[in-house]
Structure formats: C-alpha cells, structure tokens
Amino acid sequence: MATPSAGAAPTAGPASLGAEEPVIPIADTHSIAGNAIIAVVLFIIAGVAEIGGGWLVWQTLRERRAWYFAVAGGVALLLYGVIPTLQPMDNFGRVFAVYGGFFIMLS
C-alpha cells in the first residue's frame, strides 16, 4: 500500500468513493450587508461631491471667488462622475435612480 506524500489530502471517506457532498445555495448575508453599506457610503460621497462641486463653481462664477474654487469644483464634479462606477450594483439606471433619492435627502 502506498503512503500518501506530505501535504496530500486524505483519501478515506465518501469523497474517495466518488460521492460529492450536495451544495446548498445559501445567500451570503455578510456579503449582502457589506454591499449595502458600501452602496450607502458611496451614495453619500457622490452627493457631497456633486453638491460641493456645484457650490465651488458657483462661488467662482457668481460670488467672484478665486479661480481655484472652480478648479476644485471641477475635480469634485469629475469624481462625482466616477464614484457611481464603484457601486457593487451592475445596473446603471437603478444606481442613478437610488442616488436621486440620496441627492434629495442630502440637499
């Protein structure tokens, strides 16, 4: 009888007879909760970037603030466009529909 090499999986048991354990699909609740938290945080960051970026541009154009307010506002608005791509959801329309509600609350 051959001795298994070091690190080899044991061969005794049902797996060695060709039987596989049934796989029961169970939702990973930790992953779902984690994705929800990430989504909410990203929505809040996107809202702050959009509102803050718009306010900074407004300050330059309407309140005669320094040019760097507009540059900072432009960067914030650019980030606002990128942040939704970090969402764990795949559907663009749904991401922006949900974000609309967050924008209203943040405003």
Write a structural description.
- With 107 residues, the protein is mainly α.
- The protein is built from 3 helices and no strands.
- The chain has helices at residues 29-62, 67-82, 92-106.
- The protein is elongated.
- The mean pLDDT is 83.
- The longest helix has 34 residues, at 29-62.
Task: Sum up the structure in keywords.
mainly alpha; 61% helix; 0% strand; 107 residues
Helix-strand blueprint:
Blueprint (H helix, E strand, L loop, with lengths): L28 H34 L4 H16 L9 H15 L1
Helix pairs in contact: 1-2, 1-3
Order of helices and strands: HHH
What is the terminal separation in angstroms?
Answer: 75 Å
What oligomeric arrangement do these chains adopt? single chain
Strand content: under 5%
Give the overall average pLDDT.
83
From the spread of the alpha carbons, the general shape counts as elongated
* Global structural class: mainly alpha
Low-confidence stretches: none
- Helix % is 55-70%
Number of strands: 0
Would you kindly provide a brief summary of this structure?
This protein has three helices and no strands. The protein is mostly helical and 107 residues long.
